[in-house]
Structure formats: structure tokens, C-alpha cells
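Researcher: I'm preparing a figure for a lab meeting and need a structural model of a single chain. I don't have an experimental structure, so a prediction will have to do for now. The sequence is pasted below. Please return the structure as C-alpha cells so I can convert it later.
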Amino acid sequence: MKKTFIRTKNVKQFVSLMDELQKVPPNIPKMTLVYGEHGLGKSQTIQWWADKNDSVYVRASQGMTSRWLLSEIVEELGEEAYWHLHDNFEIIENILREHSKVIIVDEIDYLIDKNIIETLRDLHDKTACPVVLVGMGAADKKLARYPHLMDRIYKKLKFEKFNSDDIKEILTELTDLKFKDDAIEYLATRTNQFRQLVKLINRIEKLMKTNQIEELDEYTMKGLLNARPDINANIKAMQTIG
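Model: Understood. Here is the structure written out cell by cell.
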């Protein structure tokens, strides 16, 4: 299996949003929310973009406090964090006022219930830097109880489940194996999560090699994935006859 980053529909929409966000006039709030169910490639997309752009990426954790969050941001900016929250906030503010960067905070669900999310709103207001909040599928509903923060959300982007075109793109980028359209449609009914899809592709590659199959249709794929002996026997019999 190839190792490559795949530009699915979700990825393309995220890149477009980030390009737009950085061109927003100074007087318009520049916070944005990216959310969706697990397994759709949010974190991979965020990290991929952050590595290629001038940004600060922080992943929230269970039990994270405001001081911990600010310390992480300070260290991402290449500075040494202090103990006091105020000192760390001041360091971040001074740096970002001189050199604006996009601040990306993943797994914000850990920060919402403890009101730590307010710290990010304060950073946005003080520095005018774009702030990208990344959360799970219900993040937009959880944030709704912070109307003064939601007022600063420029746009929201929800990562959607993969469609057949996305899966075809993923197959094309990750493997040299050939799939007929009906096989792709069937695969789309098996999973809409990237990690699960990668596991399936890896399994299919091994099974196709074992059974010496060059191209998969829906019937053959069902036989392989469901491990039905009669199908596998028929496959080998057809190959012998051929």
C-alpha cells in the first residue's frame, strides 16, 4: 500500500476555507469551527495543513487547564513557558501581534465543558489571529452555549462521510489494484471511516494477491471480505479453467 496524503472532498473544502480565512479583513472575526465524526481524517488534514503553513498546532487533552493550553502554545511558538497563566498569555500576545499565525486547536471537546474555550476567544480578540477550533460531531451544539464565542465564528465546516468519488480517489492513491465501479459502490457501504477503509484495502490487497485476482467486481469482493469458502473456491476454479 502506498503512503500518500489524499485530497478528499473534505480536504479540498478545508484548504479552501483556510485560504479564505487568511484573507478576511482585520475588522471581521476570524474564528472558525471544523467538526465531524471520528474516522473522517480531520486530525490528519489539520496536521498536514499545519506542517505546510505558518501556524501553531495544539492538541487538547483530557484534564487540560488554561495554563496547560497556553504553555503548549508558547512552546509551539519556540519560547519557554512560565508558570503563571498571565505571563504565558502575554508572551503569546506579543509574538502574534508582531507576526500573525493561524492557531489550530484540535480535540476542543476537552476544553468546552470546563470553559477553557474562553481562553482561545481571548487570544483571538487580543491578537486578531485566525483561530481554528477542531472538534467532534456535536462540537457545534456544545459551543452553542457560548453565544459571545459563536458570534466570532466566521464559518463552520463539517467533515462529511466519504462518497463513492472519495473512495475511488482513495483507492487510486493508496493502491495499484483495479476495482470495477460496482466494487467501489459496495465498498462505500462497508465503511465511511478512513482508518477502517485503509484496513480494508490492506486486507483486500493480501486476498487479491493470494487468489491472483487482477480486478475486483462486487461479487468477488463480497466473497473475499465475507470469507465465504464457496466464493473463494469458485474463484480458484475459474482461474484453473481459464
